[in-house]
Amino acid sequence: MEISLLKKSLLKGLLVCFLAFMVSALSAESAKYIFLMIGDGMGVNQRKATEKYLNASGKGLVMEKFPYSGLTVTDSLSGVTDSAAGGTAIACGFKTKNGMLGILPDGKHLQSIAEYAKDKGMKIGIITSDHINGATPAAFYAHADARKRYSETASFMPQSEFDFFAGNKILTDKQENDSTRALAEKGYKIIRDFKDLNVSEKGKSFLITSMPLAIDEKNNDGVRLKDILGKAIEILDNEKGFFIMLEGAKIDWSGHNNDLASGAKELVDFDNAVKTAYEFYQKNPSDTLIVVTADHETGGLQLSDNISKLPDSVNSQKCSKLTMHAVLEKYKKEKKSFEDVLKKLEEFFDLKDLNDSEMTSVRQAYNIYMDNKVEDKRPEEVKKMYGNKNPLIYVCSKMADEKGGYKWTLPNHSMAKVKTSAVGVGAELFNQEMDNTQIPANIKKIMK
Ligand SMILES: [Zn+2]
Fold first, then answer.
1. Which domain CATH number covers 181?
2. CA–centroid distance, residue 305 to ligand 1 (Å)
3. Helix or strand or coil: residue 151?
4. Same domain for 270 and 335
5. According to the model, what pLDDT value does residue 17 have?
6. By three-state DSSP, how is residue 197 classified?
């Protein structure tokens, strides 16, 4: 008697569990359209500084308005991560060593979230503002233990059979073939002019386009990430949905160069693409998930209490430090006078009324810079202070940074946590602090 009662209650319990499982499985949220957007080197303070810069003109970042967000841990098995290990964690859900793409230190190949989505019948798009086989995009299709063996990483692109690629030209090792023939043989249409990217083109396409830094874009008429994403959405839209990874690659460059004005404008450019995705979400709210994250912070950017002048500091800078450096290198060859160089620096940074001590440091930097090629006579502590940077740019930008209320502390990546924001179906899963490996695991849960 007792035994049969026990059996009955057990059966009842099992039935309840099964029904609960079925209900949850049937009502489980799932998204047909997934955007994973990665700002390379986009730390929490880079986002805050850019938000502050935009607020001054009554605007703000779209990604900051997303309803769910949390901090994300970025370190790799090597410590401070590079973009290969960071990309692998976000793409494949596993920690690996720096330099490795879609692979574990023991050589085991990992399946990326893009490959998983492809297996499920979704269409796949990979978009970046830098080289298409740079570390971040390559983490989604390549499996190699050295990110810099470019010809090898590129060879995974045709094999992936992903539907859409867009980015700067394929990097290769020396004179080797750049895989475009292999791509064409696999049915990819290679497009070298954005205008030729046809929305009615439903086959696989590969857009090669180079994008200057947003701050150096002269007439604002060049092709930007948002334009490519807009076309990609139209090309990839289909019944089974799509997965699009889009990288804002050069936020990282600006961090390495300790160049906030370039970084903020690059971050706005990336956010414009986030806006394009967000507008798609607004039309398809019950089917879409957007996740915005970063692989790591770059530059150890610190913000003080006094950042009210930060927008002025960003607006005053006329071009990227990379462009300034190129101009100054030319001036150096031409042995331009201090007055000429000073005039150019004042123009770059919109410097006005330098005081005596500021003028002295610019003159000192001029002497060091112009002499540099002959012999580096700089005292050890000065060398340490200037690092590998152009001393003229270093001295002037330090003045601009101080006025803006911010400070860079590193020329490299840091271990600072980044911020992940999400909107759409299942976005609440991202409303907590997590490891970067959790990002693809969460997306898998939400994929239809
Ligand atoms: Zn970097």
1. 3.40.720.10
2. 27
3. helix
4. no
5. 45
6. coil
